[in-house]
Amino acid sequence: MKVLVLGSGAGGGFPQWNCNCRLCAGQRQGVLDACARTQSSIAVSADGESWVLLNASPDIGQQIRSHPQLHPRHGLRDTPIKAVVLMDAQIDHVAGLLGLREGPRIDLYATPCVFEDLTTSFPVLGVLEHYCGTRWHMLAVAGTQTRIDFGVAGFPSLRFTAVAIPGKAPPYSPHRREQTVGDNIALLIEDLQGGRRLFYAPGLAEVGPEELRWMHDADCLLLDGTFWTEDEMRHAGLGTRSASDMGHLPQTGTGPRAGMVDALLATPAGRKVLTHINNSNPILDAASAQRQLLERHGIEVAYDGMEISL
Ligand code: MLT
Ligand code: MN
Ligand code: ZN
User: Fold this and answer.
1) Which of 48, 111, 168, 232 is the most buried (most CB within 10 A)?
2) Residue whose CA lies nearest to ligand 1 atom number 9
């Protein structure tokens, strides 16, 4: 299985267009050892020919342009992107669907909650009906059904499992204040040929016993790296919302609540990678003490263009 990190930043990317914080300004001025990051998405392939997108970032045009694997190959109009699977209905994960409107009908895999948000409060799918349209593949994660195995047409050697995880629905969702099963999923993807497994969760609010079990099953973890601390937005004067308000488990724990680093240390995966990194997170600076701490623990920080072979 091949994994391409198309975008490793959180909503807004890095540097964020309107942000003059130490990290964003430092990146623009070239005084930090930090690369720019587009908004969160990855592509996965079994053969390097056909790709499935996990999330569709608002930066999708730039992401496709900078990855030759995703360029058209055969005939006048063509794309090796065969399907899109959505983890949630957040802008940074779905707005890129609009950027695919010139192509064929999009084979779209998502939960009922996500289809609901994308046809009501953020009606991207209705808009797309006037362009390429979408073909719905319902991932039955809802109510008491918290996991589902599924296949994606065109990827016979990959087995996907969607798992309900703790997180937050988008601000415009009717579920924002009351989490509903299916608002946020993680994916376990197994390559049936080599038996290797990827666990992908760019938005994860909590690592409980369930999540730890899934993480234990994976050879490679690609997980929520949004925030270093619970209150870093507030401390940097960038906003009032905490990591938990936004549905993200910070890398550092507070009080009895363990952080993402503790969770990663408790898992045996050969590769542990953080992605969906917010522009406030000090790990963006490769020379930071926080980054060095991650390195000591064998935890990697995803970057745009990172390729993982499993
Ligand atoms: C989030 O995951 O909380 C988002 O990155 C927020 C956003 O897209 O603005
Ligand atoms: Mn996000
Ligand atoms: Zn900033």
Assistant:
1) 111
2) 11
Q: Are strands 2-7 and 106-110 parallel, antiparallel or unpaired?
A: unpaired
- Tell how far CA 50 is from the center of its chain: 19
Chain-centre distance for alpha carbon 218? 16
pLDDT digits (tens, 9 = 90+) for 207-263: 999 999 999 999 999 999 999 999 999 999 999 999 999 999 999 999 889 999 999
Q: What's the alpha-carbon Rg for the chain, to the nearest Å?
A: 18
DSSP class of residue 105 equals P
Question: Which residue CA neighbors atom 1 of ligand 1 most closely?
Answer: 11
Each residue of 136-189: pLDDT tens digit?
A: 999 999 999 999 999 999 999 999 999 999 999 999 999 999 999 999 999 999
Compute CA distances 279 → 47, 69, 155, 301, whole Å. Answer: 33, 27, 34, 13
Q: Kindly report whether the global pTM for this prediction surpasses the value 0.90.
A: yes
Amino acid letter, residue 238: L
Instruction: Output the six-digit token pair for 269.
Output: 């995966």
Q: Could you tell me if the CB of 63 is within 6 A of ligand 1?
A: no
For 261, the token pair is 């680093």
3-state helix, strand, coil in the chain (%, to 5): 20, 25, 55
Residue 190 to residue 195: CA distance in whole angstroms:
6
- Quote the ligand 1 centre to 226 CA distance (angstroms): 9
